[in-house]
Amino acid sequence: MRRPGALAAAALSLGLLVTGCSGTTGTTDETTTVGSGSGTPSADATTEPGEQSRELEQPEETVDPDQPTSWGPTEGELAEAREVVVQMSPEELAGQVIVGRYAGTDPAEPARLVSDLHLSGVCVTGDNVVDEAQVRATTAAVSQAVADSGRDFPAVIGVDQEGGTVSHLRGIATEFPAFRAAGEAVDGNGRRGKTAVRDAAYTTGLELRELGFTWVYAPVADVTIGAADPTIGSRSPSTDPRLAAKATAAAVDGFDRSGTVSTTKHYPGHGGATADSHLTLPALDAPAEELEKRDLKPFRAATKAGAPSVMIGHLDVEALAPGTPSSIAPEIYEHLREEVGFEGVAITDSLGMGAVAGIPDLAVKALVAGADLLLMPADTRRTHARVTKAISDGEVTPERIEEAAVRVVALQMWQARVASEKKVPDDISARAAEAARALEVAAYAAP
After folding, report:
1. Which region ranges are annotated with the description Disordered (predicted)?
2. CA 414 to CA 345: how far, in whole Å?
Protein backbone atom coordinates (compact mmCIF):
# COMPACT_ATOMS: atom_id res chain seq x y z
CA MET A 1 0.00 0.00 0.00
CA ARG A 2 1.16 3.49 -0.71
CA ARG A 3 2.12 6.01 1.92
CA PRO A 4 -0.76 8.42 2.58
CA GLY A 5 0.06 12.03 1.73
CA ALA A 6 1.20 14.30 4.54
CA LEU A 7 0.90 11.48 7.05
CA ALA A 8 3.93 12.55 9.03
CA ALA A 9 2.55 16.04 9.54
CA ALA A 10 -0.86 14.73 10.49
CA ALA A 11 0.58 12.28 12.97
CA LEU A 12 2.77 14.91 14.52
CA SER A 13 -0.08 17.37 14.90
CA LEU A 14 -1.87 14.80 17.05
CA GLY A 15 1.24 13.81 18.99
CA LEU A 16 3.46 10.86 18.13
CA LEU A 17 3.11 7.44 19.70
CA VAL A 18 6.44 6.30 21.04
CA THR A 19 6.91 2.56 21.34
CA GLY A 20 9.04 1.14 24.14
CA CYS A 21 11.62 -1.62 23.98
CA SER A 22 10.49 -5.23 24.04
CA GLY A 23 10.54 -6.95 27.37
CA THR A 24 11.00 -10.56 28.37
CA THR A 25 7.58 -11.52 27.04
CA GLY A 26 8.49 -10.34 23.58
CA THR A 27 5.81 -7.66 23.51
CA THR A 28 6.33 -3.94 23.53
CA ASP A 29 6.05 -1.80 26.60
CA GLU A 30 2.85 0.24 26.75
CA THR A 31 2.82 3.20 24.40
CA THR A 32 2.74 6.77 25.63
CA THR A 33 1.58 9.90 23.88
CA VAL A 34 4.04 12.72 23.61
CA GLY A 35 2.66 16.18 24.32
CA SER A 36 -0.59 15.20 26.04
CA GLY A 37 0.08 16.98 29.37
CA SER A 38 -2.15 19.72 30.78
CA GLY A 39 -1.31 23.02 32.42
CA THR A 40 0.24 23.05 35.91
CA PRO A 41 -0.64 25.33 38.83
CA SER A 42 1.40 28.47 39.34
CA ALA A 43 4.38 28.07 41.58
CA ASP A 44 3.91 31.63 42.93
CA ALA A 45 3.49 31.29 46.69
CA THR A 46 2.92 35.04 47.27
CA THR A 47 -0.62 35.29 45.87
CA GLU A 48 -2.58 37.91 47.76
CA PRO A 49 -5.93 36.98 49.38
CA GLY A 50 -8.75 37.32 46.91
CA GLU A 51 -6.46 36.77 43.92
CA GLN A 52 -7.01 33.66 41.89
CA SER A 53 -4.00 31.49 41.14
CA ARG A 54 -3.53 31.28 37.40
CA GLU A 55 -2.64 28.04 35.73
CA LEU A 56 0.34 28.34 33.46
CA GLU A 57 -0.41 26.91 30.09
CA GLN A 58 2.23 24.42 29.04
CA PRO A 59 2.91 24.31 25.31
CA GLU A 60 2.17 20.95 23.76
CA GLU A 61 5.39 19.10 23.18
CA THR A 62 5.98 18.23 19.55
CA VAL A 63 8.61 16.22 17.77
CA ASP A 64 10.49 17.65 14.83
CA PRO A 65 9.67 15.37 11.86
CA ASP A 66 13.16 16.01 10.46
CA GLN A 67 14.86 14.93 13.70
CA PRO A 68 16.91 11.79 12.95
CA THR A 69 16.75 8.77 15.20
CA SER A 70 19.90 7.15 16.56
CA TRP A 71 19.70 4.52 13.79
CA GLY A 72 18.77 6.48 10.66
CA PRO A 73 15.11 7.23 9.95
CA THR A 74 13.66 10.56 10.97
CA GLU A 75 10.83 10.91 13.46
CA GLY A 76 8.61 11.83 10.51
CA GLU A 77 9.54 8.62 8.70
CA LEU A 78 8.69 6.61 11.79
CA ALA A 79 5.29 8.29 12.01
CA GLU A 80 4.68 7.72 8.31
CA ALA A 81 5.74 4.08 8.60
CA ARG A 82 3.27 3.57 11.42
CA GLU A 83 0.44 4.95 9.29
CA VAL A 84 1.35 2.47 6.55
CA VAL A 85 1.71 -0.51 8.86
CA VAL A 86 -1.59 -0.09 10.71
CA GLN A 87 -3.39 -0.59 7.39
CA MET A 88 -1.70 -3.93 6.67
CA SER A 89 -3.52 -7.24 6.82
CA PRO A 90 -2.08 -10.18 8.80
CA GLU A 91 -0.71 -11.62 5.55
CA GLU A 92 0.99 -8.34 4.70
CA LEU A 93 2.38 -7.91 8.20
CA ALA A 94 3.81 -11.41 8.15
CA GLY A 95 5.46 -10.79 4.80
CA GLN A 96 6.89 -7.44 5.85
CA VAL A 97 8.98 -9.08 8.59
CA ILE A 98 10.38 -11.91 6.45
CA VAL A 99 13.43 -11.82 4.16
CA GLY A 100 12.87 -14.83 1.96
CA ARG A 101 15.05 -17.73 0.90
CA TYR A 102 14.69 -19.06 -2.63
CA ALA A 103 16.35 -21.66 -4.81
CA GLY A 104 17.86 -21.34 -8.26
CA THR A 105 18.88 -18.45 -10.47
CA ASP A 106 15.67 -17.52 -12.27
CA PRO A 107 14.82 -13.89 -11.34
CA ALA A 108 11.12 -14.73 -11.59
CA GLU A 109 11.30 -17.05 -8.56
CA PRO A 110 12.17 -14.46 -5.88
CA ALA A 111 9.82 -11.96 -7.52
CA ARG A 112 7.01 -14.51 -7.33
CA LEU A 113 7.71 -15.15 -3.63
CA VAL A 114 7.66 -11.44 -2.85
CA SER A 115 4.46 -10.96 -4.80
CA ASP A 116 2.63 -13.97 -3.39
CA LEU A 117 3.67 -13.49 0.25
CA HIS A 118 4.07 -9.70 0.53
CA LEU A 119 7.70 -10.26 1.60
CA SER A 120 9.90 -7.35 2.58
CA GLY A 121 12.43 -8.85 0.19
CA VAL A 122 14.95 -11.65 -0.25
CA CYS A 123 18.54 -12.59 0.46
CA VAL A 124 20.68 -13.32 -2.59
CA THR A 125 23.33 -15.99 -1.98
CA GLY A 126 26.13 -17.33 -4.13
CA ASP A 127 23.84 -20.18 -5.21
CA ASN A 128 21.46 -17.61 -6.72
CA VAL A 129 24.14 -15.88 -8.80
CA VAL A 130 25.23 -16.49 -12.39
CA ASP A 131 26.69 -13.25 -13.71
CA GLU A 132 26.22 -9.49 -13.52
CA ALA A 133 23.31 -9.34 -15.95
CA GLN A 134 21.44 -12.06 -14.06
CA VAL A 135 22.06 -10.33 -10.70
CA ARG A 136 20.70 -7.06 -12.08
CA ALA A 137 17.67 -8.88 -13.47
CA THR A 138 17.05 -10.46 -10.05
CA THR A 139 17.25 -7.24 -8.04
CA ALA A 140 15.11 -5.43 -10.62
CA ALA A 141 12.46 -8.16 -10.55
CA VAL A 142 12.24 -8.11 -6.74
CA SER A 143 12.09 -4.31 -6.66
CA GLN A 144 9.31 -4.34 -9.22
CA ALA A 145 7.37 -6.93 -7.25
CA VAL A 146 7.42 -4.69 -4.17
CA ALA A 147 6.39 -1.66 -6.24
CA ASP A 148 3.57 -3.62 -7.89
CA SER A 149 2.22 -4.47 -4.43
CA GLY A 150 1.61 -0.76 -3.83
CA ARG A 151 4.53 -0.20 -1.47
CA ASP A 152 6.45 2.95 -2.38
CA PHE A 153 9.44 2.13 -0.18
CA PRO A 154 12.20 -0.20 -1.40
CA ALA A 155 12.50 -3.94 -1.05
CA VAL A 156 14.99 -5.46 1.36
CA ILE A 157 17.47 -6.99 -1.08
CA GLY A 158 20.46 -8.19 0.88
CA VAL A 159 23.68 -10.07 0.31
CA ASP A 160 26.65 -11.28 2.34
CA GLN A 161 29.46 -9.15 0.97
CA GLU A 162 31.92 -8.93 3.86
CA GLY A 163 35.13 -9.15 1.87
CA GLY A 164 37.55 -12.07 1.90
CA THR A 165 36.02 -15.54 1.91
CA VAL A 166 32.43 -14.36 2.46
CA SER A 167 31.68 -12.50 -0.76
CA HIS A 168 28.67 -13.86 -2.61
CA LEU A 169 29.15 -11.56 -5.59
CA ARG A 170 32.63 -12.77 -6.39
CA GLY A 171 33.57 -11.84 -9.92
CA ILE A 172 30.72 -9.33 -10.13
CA ALA A 173 31.46 -6.77 -7.42
CA THR A 174 34.90 -5.54 -6.35
CA GLU A 175 36.81 -7.97 -4.16
CA PHE A 176 37.89 -6.48 -0.84
CA PRO A 177 40.22 -8.11 1.67
CA ALA A 178 38.75 -9.94 4.64
CA PHE A 179 37.56 -7.66 7.43
CA ARG A 180 40.65 -8.57 9.46
CA ALA A 181 42.36 -5.99 7.27
CA ALA A 182 40.14 -3.32 8.81
CA GLY A 183 41.43 -4.07 12.30
CA GLU A 184 45.00 -4.12 11.02
CA ALA A 185 44.52 -0.80 9.26
CA VAL A 186 43.16 0.86 12.37
CA ASP A 187 45.94 -0.64 14.49
CA GLY A 188 48.82 0.42 12.27
CA ASN A 189 47.63 3.68 10.81
CA GLY A 190 45.28 5.34 13.26
CA ARG A 191 43.11 8.00 11.61
CA ARG A 192 44.36 7.07 8.14
CA GLY A 193 43.40 3.47 8.81
CA LYS A 194 39.89 4.39 9.93
CA THR A 195 39.48 6.48 6.80
CA ALA A 196 40.51 3.49 4.66
CA VAL A 197 37.95 1.29 6.44
CA ARG A 198 35.20 3.86 6.05
CA ASP A 199 35.99 4.37 2.35
CA ALA A 200 35.97 0.61 1.74
CA ALA A 201 32.51 0.31 3.27
CA TYR A 202 31.30 3.44 1.48
CA THR A 203 32.34 2.25 -1.97
CA THR A 204 31.09 -1.28 -1.27
CA GLY A 205 27.71 0.19 -0.40
CA LEU A 206 27.59 2.33 -3.51
CA GLU A 207 28.62 -0.56 -5.74
CA LEU A 208 25.93 -2.78 -4.22
CA ARG A 209 23.35 -0.07 -4.77
CA GLU A 210 24.41 0.19 -8.40
CA LEU A 211 23.66 -3.54 -8.74
CA GLY A 212 20.22 -3.06 -7.20
CA PHE A 213 20.85 -4.10 -3.58
CA THR A 214 19.59 -2.15 -0.57
CA TRP A 215 21.16 -4.17 2.30
CA VAL A 216 24.52 -5.72 3.08
CA TYR A 217 25.03 -8.28 5.84
CA ALA A 218 28.21 -6.67 7.14
CA PRO A 219 30.25 -5.60 9.06
CA VAL A 220 31.25 -8.51 11.28
CA ALA A 221 31.71 -7.14 14.80
CA ASP A 222 32.74 -10.43 16.40
CA VAL A 223 36.00 -10.41 18.36
CA THR A 224 37.75 -13.64 17.43
CA ILE A 225 39.65 -15.71 19.96
CA GLY A 226 41.96 -17.00 17.25
CA ALA A 227 42.61 -20.61 16.26
CA ALA A 228 39.90 -22.00 18.54
CA ASP A 229 37.28 -20.02 16.60
CA PRO A 230 36.25 -22.22 13.65
CA THR A 231 33.61 -19.92 12.13
CA ILE A 232 34.60 -16.27 12.20
CA GLY A 233 38.40 -16.19 11.90
CA SER A 234 39.54 -13.58 9.38
CA ARG A 235 35.98 -12.30 9.09
CA SER A 236 36.60 -10.67 12.49
CA PRO A 237 38.36 -7.32 12.56
CA SER A 238 40.61 -8.28 15.48
CA THR A 239 41.32 -10.25 18.61
CA ASP A 240 41.55 -6.87 20.35
CA PRO A 241 38.11 -5.51 21.34
CA ARG A 242 39.32 -1.91 21.13
CA LEU A 243 40.51 -2.30 17.54
CA ALA A 244 37.43 -4.32 16.58
CA ALA A 245 35.21 -1.53 17.95
CA LYS A 246 37.02 1.17 15.97
CA ALA A 247 36.97 -0.83 12.73
CA THR A 248 33.29 -1.75 13.11
CA ALA A 249 32.24 1.84 13.82
CA ALA A 250 34.19 3.11 10.80
CA ALA A 251 32.51 0.54 8.54
CA VAL A 252 29.04 1.40 9.83
CA ASP A 253 29.74 5.07 9.13
CA GLY A 254 30.83 4.28 5.58
CA PHE A 255 27.78 2.17 4.82
CA ASP A 256 25.47 4.81 6.32
CA ARG A 257 26.98 7.45 4.04
CA SER A 258 26.46 5.21 1.00
CA GLY A 259 22.73 4.72 1.55
CA THR A 260 23.05 0.96 1.94
CA VAL A 261 21.62 -0.61 5.09
CA SER A 262 24.40 -2.35 7.01
CA THR A 263 23.93 -5.26 9.42
CA THR A 264 26.36 -5.45 12.34
CA LYS A 265 26.71 -9.10 13.30
CA HIS A 266 26.51 -11.57 15.17
CA TYR A 267 25.18 -10.28 18.50
CA PRO A 268 26.25 -10.75 21.24
CA GLY A 269 29.45 -12.04 19.63
CA HIS A 270 30.29 -15.25 17.76
CA GLY A 271 34.05 -14.87 17.84
CA GLY A 272 34.40 -16.52 21.25
CA ALA A 273 32.48 -19.65 20.27
CA THR A 274 34.35 -22.85 19.50
CA ALA A 275 31.62 -24.44 17.33
CA ASP A 276 30.03 -23.47 14.03
CA SER A 277 26.40 -22.28 14.24
CA HIS A 278 25.86 -23.37 10.65
CA LEU A 279 26.08 -26.91 12.02
CA THR A 280 25.18 -26.85 15.71
CA LEU A 281 24.30 -24.52 18.58
CA PRO A 282 27.59 -23.15 19.98
CA ALA A 283 27.91 -22.51 23.70
CA LEU A 284 29.31 -19.14 24.72
CA ASP A 285 30.27 -19.74 28.35
CA ALA A 286 32.09 -16.47 29.05
CA PRO A 287 30.93 -14.70 32.23
CA ALA A 288 29.07 -11.41 31.89
CA GLU A 289 32.17 -9.40 32.77
CA GLU A 290 34.13 -11.00 29.94
CA LEU A 291 31.31 -10.46 27.46
CA GLU A 292 31.27 -6.79 28.41
CA LYS A 293 35.03 -6.35 28.10
CA ARG A 294 35.44 -8.34 24.89
CA ASP A 295 32.37 -9.21 22.83
CA LEU A 296 30.06 -6.26 23.41
CA LYS A 297 32.49 -3.40 22.78
CA PRO A 298 32.15 -3.45 18.96
CA PHE A 299 28.35 -3.58 19.18
CA ARG A 300 28.31 -0.60 21.52
CA ALA A 301 30.59 1.25 19.11
CA ALA A 302 28.38 0.34 16.14
CA THR A 303 25.28 1.56 17.97
CA LYS A 304 26.98 4.84 18.78
CA ALA A 305 28.03 5.16 15.12
CA GLY A 306 24.42 4.87 13.95
CA ALA A 307 24.04 1.19 13.08
CA PRO A 308 20.62 0.72 11.43
CA SER A 309 20.47 -3.05 11.90
CA VAL A 310 22.02 -5.68 14.17
CA MET A 311 21.98 -9.40 13.44
CA ILE A 312 21.31 -11.76 16.34
CA GLY A 313 23.43 -14.90 16.20
CA HIS A 314 22.40 -18.44 17.10
CA LEU A 315 24.32 -18.93 20.35
CA ASP A 316 23.75 -20.45 23.77
CA VAL A 317 24.87 -17.48 25.86
CA GLU A 318 25.27 -18.76 29.39
CA ALA A 319 25.55 -15.33 31.02
CA LEU A 320 22.35 -13.97 29.45
CA ALA A 321 20.00 -16.78 28.36
CA PRO A 322 21.40 -20.21 29.22
CA GLY A 323 19.98 -23.11 27.26
CA THR A 324 18.11 -21.01 24.69
CA PRO A 325 19.37 -19.97 21.26
CA SER A 326 20.02 -16.23 21.43
CA SER A 327 17.89 -15.59 18.34
CA ILE A 328 14.75 -16.71 20.19
CA ALA A 329 15.70 -15.53 23.70
CA PRO A 330 13.81 -12.45 24.96
CA GLU A 331 16.68 -11.72 27.36
CA ILE A 332 19.06 -11.18 24.41
CA TYR A 333 16.82 -8.67 22.66
CA GLU A 334 16.15 -6.90 25.95
CA HIS A 335 19.87 -6.71 26.61
CA LEU A 336 20.50 -5.29 23.13
CA ARG A 337 17.81 -2.63 23.60
CA GLU A 338 18.23 -1.69 27.22
CA GLU A 339 21.90 -2.33 28.00
CA VAL A 340 23.51 -1.52 24.64
CA GLY A 341 20.91 1.09 23.68
CA PHE A 342 20.26 -0.14 20.14
CA GLU A 343 16.95 1.14 18.74
CA GLY A 344 17.03 -0.07 15.13
CA VAL A 345 16.07 -3.27 13.31
CA ALA A 346 17.02 -6.55 15.00
CA ILE A 347 17.33 -9.27 12.37
CA THR A 348 17.92 -12.96 13.05
CA ASP A 349 20.74 -14.90 11.50
CA SER A 350 19.49 -17.32 8.86
CA LEU A 351 16.70 -19.44 10.30
CA GLY A 352 17.81 -22.33 8.11
CA MET A 353 21.05 -22.93 10.02
CA GLY A 354 21.86 -26.10 11.93
CA ALA A 355 21.97 -24.31 15.28
CA VAL A 356 18.19 -23.87 15.25
CA ALA A 357 17.13 -26.74 13.00
CA GLY A 358 14.08 -28.60 14.21
CA ILE A 359 12.89 -26.02 16.75
CA PRO A 360 9.08 -25.92 16.55
CA ASP A 361 7.55 -22.56 15.64
CA LEU A 362 11.02 -21.05 15.29
CA ALA A 363 9.95 -17.90 13.42
CA VAL A 364 7.09 -17.16 15.80
CA LYS A 365 9.35 -17.61 18.81
CA ALA A 366 11.88 -15.20 17.32
CA LEU A 367 9.21 -12.55 16.72
CA VAL A 368 7.76 -12.91 20.19
CA ALA A 369 11.26 -12.69 21.67
CA GLY A 370 11.90 -9.37 19.92
CA ALA A 371 13.15 -9.96 16.38
CA ASP A 372 12.01 -7.43 13.77
CA LEU A 373 13.12 -9.33 10.67
CA LEU A 374 13.28 -13.08 10.07
CA LEU A 375 16.14 -13.95 7.75
CA MET A 376 15.93 -16.85 5.30
CA PRO A 377 13.54 -19.35 6.90
CA ALA A 378 14.16 -22.91 5.75
CA ASP A 379 10.77 -22.88 4.03
CA THR A 380 9.64 -19.34 3.23
CA ARG A 381 6.06 -20.17 2.23
CA ARG A 382 5.39 -22.39 5.22
CA THR A 383 6.92 -19.83 7.59
CA HIS A 384 4.77 -17.07 6.14
CA ALA A 385 1.63 -19.14 6.66
CA ARG A 386 2.59 -19.92 10.27
CA VAL A 387 3.44 -16.30 11.11
CA THR A 388 0.19 -15.10 9.50
CA LYS A 389 -1.78 -17.50 11.69
CA ALA A 390 0.12 -16.41 14.79
CA ILE A 391 -0.73 -12.78 14.06
CA SER A 392 -4.38 -13.55 13.36
CA ASP A 393 -4.69 -15.62 16.54
CA GLY A 394 -2.94 -13.03 18.72
CA GLU A 395 -0.03 -15.34 19.48
CA VAL A 396 2.11 -12.49 18.18
CA THR A 397 0.41 -9.44 19.62
CA PRO A 398 -0.59 -6.48 17.45
CA GLU A 399 1.83 -4.27 19.39
CA ARG A 400 4.78 -6.60 18.74
CA ILE A 401 4.18 -7.20 15.03
CA GLU A 402 3.46 -3.54 14.35
CA GLU A 403 6.58 -2.49 16.25
CA ALA A 404 8.66 -4.85 14.11
CA ALA A 405 7.07 -3.87 10.80
CA VAL A 406 7.28 -0.14 11.55
CA ARG A 407 11.01 -0.39 12.14
CA VAL A 408 11.51 -2.24 8.86
CA VAL A 409 9.35 0.12 6.80
CA ALA A 410 10.90 3.24 8.35
CA LEU A 411 14.40 1.93 7.65
CA GLN A 412 13.53 1.32 4.01
CA MET A 413 12.15 4.86 3.78
CA TRP A 414 15.49 6.07 5.14
CA GLN A 415 17.35 3.96 2.59
CA ALA A 416 15.33 5.44 -0.26
CA ARG A 417 15.89 8.99 0.96
CA VAL A 418 19.66 8.68 1.44
CA ALA A 419 20.02 6.85 -1.87
CA SER A 420 18.17 9.66 -3.65
CA GLU A 421 20.53 12.20 -2.10
CA LYS A 422 23.72 10.22 -2.78
CA LYS A 423 23.94 9.34 -6.44
CA VAL A 424 26.17 6.45 -7.48
CA PRO A 425 29.06 7.81 -9.58
CA ASP A 426 29.58 6.39 -13.04
CA ASP A 427 33.07 5.19 -12.12
CA ILE A 428 32.08 3.44 -8.90
CA SER A 429 33.86 0.20 -9.85
CA ALA A 430 37.14 2.05 -10.30
CA ARG A 431 36.63 3.90 -7.02
CA ALA A 432 35.84 0.64 -5.21
CA ALA A 433 38.99 -0.98 -6.61
CA GLU A 434 41.05 1.97 -5.40
CA ALA A 435 39.44 1.75 -1.95
CA ALA A 436 40.25 -1.96 -1.77
CA ARG A 437 43.90 -1.24 -2.59
CA ALA A 438 44.02 1.58 -0.04
CA LEU A 439 42.66 -0.72 2.66
CA GLU A 440 45.29 -3.33 1.88
CA VAL A 441 48.06 -0.71 2.01
CA ALA A 442 46.77 0.67 5.31
CA ALA A 443 46.52 -2.83 6.75
CA TYR A 444 49.80 -4.33 5.68
CA ALA A 445 52.21 -1.50 4.91
CA ALA A 446 54.26 0.21 7.60
CA PRO A 447 52.59 3.37 8.91
Report:
1. 23-74
2. 12
